[in-house]
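User: Sequence in, structure out. Go.
Assistant: Echoing your sequence, followed by the structure tokens.
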Amino acid sequence: MKNGFSFRNFFYPIIIITIIFIGCGGPKKEPQTPTAGYITVKGSEEVLPMMMEQAYAFMDLYAKAKVLVLDGGSDRALAAIFTDSAQVAFTTRPISTAELERSKQAGFKVNEYKICKDGIAIVVNPKNPIKKLSVEQVIDIFTGKLKNWADGSPIRVCIWDDNSGTFEYFKDSILKGKEYLKRAWRFATTEDIIKHINQEKSAIGMISMSRLYQNWSPLVEETRIKALPIGLTVKSNFVYPDESTVHEGTYPFIRYIYMYTPNDPKGLDSGFISFITSTAGQKLIVGNGLVPITIPVKYKKETT
């Protein structure tokens, strides 16, 4: 609490969905440095595997560093850094103007860091005969204007719950502020979305392209769903979401992944963020199917 700041009036109550503890021991009262101390890092479930790997690698380098990684969604992560229940947030959407203004009024000086790029994959059941969609068709499906597939079966729309950064980013940037279909199924995790689409032939949803593989080393494809190529129009080229198309900017649904601190980072938070934006951290981003932005990369297209 700071300058009369009230969490109750600021963001949503924090409900921890999943807790992953990395390292051992509880919070320490020892002085923090960029390579020693204890921090809590909270954020989006969609990029949680990448953030866990970052924390493991960071602590392998610095024995006195302890990092606790929590998920729970971008909204709750941003709320957490303003109540000191987390020191760093990682999100799949930028902080909103309203959130930023409220934080300033409460005496905080928010710092934003773009750490990588991601593509939002539009996914369906592997047995669904649909082969591609235009941006306009995606908008019509998720707003309920387009109700049936070509064979007449009803489209079952799957979206994220409203604590998710993807929920807000997709609505604001892709649907252009239009409301989601009211009857859409809502989910809190990537796994729940994948399971539902796998069980429902007519379902469609959106996930991070980093989750199109169950594992990245060795590479194990997620076969329970299939990603659709997306075109800017019905007559344009249709592009699959992958590291190359996101890096080149040819895939239509691209977003940044962010990290936030409530004030200027000075302790372990600064060291951890610096590690993620370093060459070592960016290589871990590549290894999790995301696109680095602080180091030069070149993707080779496969030829047949």
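User: And one key feature?
Assistant: The mean pLDDT is 90.
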